[in-house]
Amino acid sequence: MPEIERAGGRIHWRAEGPADAPALLFSNSLGSDLDLWRPQMEAVRDRRVIRYDTRGHGRSEGTSSWTIDLLGEDAVAVLDAAGVDRADFVGISLGGLTGMWLGIHAPARVGKLVLANTGAKIGTPDTWNQRINAVQTEGLAPIADSVLARWFTPGFAASEPDVVATIRHTLVTTSPAGYIACCEALREADLRNEIAAIQSPVLVVTGTHDLSTPPALGEFVRTRIEGARLVELPAAHISNVEQAAAFNTAMLDFFSA
User: Fold this and answer.
1) CA 205/CA 225 separation, integer angstroms
2) Which CATH number characterizes residue 25's domain?
3) Do residues 250 and 108 make contact, with C-beta atoms less than 8 angstroms apart?
4) Which residue stretches of 62-175 are H helix?
5) How many CB atoms lie within 10 A of CB 211?
6) CB neighbours of 202 closer than 8 A, spacing ≥ 6?
């Protein structure tokens, strides 16, 4: 599998689809990996699709702590490695924050941005410190059930137990050090005063039942970026999985507009 060595880490990435097709870059959430985007792959089969494991997740590695700047630079490095000058972008949660960074700091590299279940500032220092302390003390398995309860509605968890079990496995097998370092990046990241600079077309996706990044965070992003659109789905935090069909429709409609 292709990998990039940079900034004390290794970034695993994958490109699929026609080499001469318009490019699309996906960026995953905290505690997941590039397989989080499986529900979207058939919908974008005519694209040159590039997925990668965020630093410290999946097959990607990293050492020490890092920032949203480093995570954004990783995304640019993936585009470079794939030989792509410019790509549309879809990111969820931490991936959505990475997309905002790209829109601000690397506007020439991205076209349209889908920013799902995210915010320009996510959580508080206290909540992230509590999460970090819990993982440092006990690892990821003890927090998995509480995380998944925020990721999916009870109805979805009951109707799709195999899907949830697969995502749970990815979460609990994530590197605790990588997870903690991304928590530190999220704790420090605050793009609220910068996102107005984004000139790319933006679609914000929120989840009605999302407790991790409530709809108000998405509405804030929409109001700060000129021309941004917003769609709210009847989902919790991982809307691209829980409401895959509706998510895909909104994404494709936005790309074709």
Assistant:
1) 14
2) 3.40.50.1820
3) no
4) 68-82, 94-105, 125-138, 141-151, 154-159, 161-172
5) 11
6) 103, 112, 113, 114, 115, 221, 222, 225, 227, 228, 229
The position carrying tokens 């990475």 is: 98
Q: What gap in Å lies between CA 203 and CA 179, rounded to an integer? A: 27
3-state DSSP assignment of residue 105: helix
Phi then psi for 101, rounded to 5 degrees? Answer: -60, -45
**Two tokens, residue 76:** 């640019």
Please give the model's pTM, rounded to 2 decimal places: 0.97
What b/e string do you get for 231-244 counting C-beta neighbours within 10 Å, with b at 16 or more? Answer: bbbebbbbbbbbbb
- Residue-wise pLDDT tens digits, 206-255: 999 999 999 999 999 999 999 999 999 999 999 999 999 999 999 999 99
For every residue of 127-147, DSSP letters joined together read HHHHHHHHHHHH-SHHHHHHH
Q: What is the DSSP letter of 231?
A: E
Between the two ends of the chain, the Cα-to-Cα distance in Å is 34
Q: How many domains does the chain have?
A: 1
143, two tokens? 């927090």
**Token pair listed for 78:** 């993936």
Q: Summarize pLDDT for 16-67 with one digit per residue, the tens.
A: 999 999 999 999 999 999 999 999 999 999 999 999 999 999 999 997 889 9
Q: Could you tell me the CA-to-CA distances from 157 to 73, 108, 162, 165 in Å, in that order?
A: 35, 40, 9, 9
Domain extent, residue 156, equals 3-256
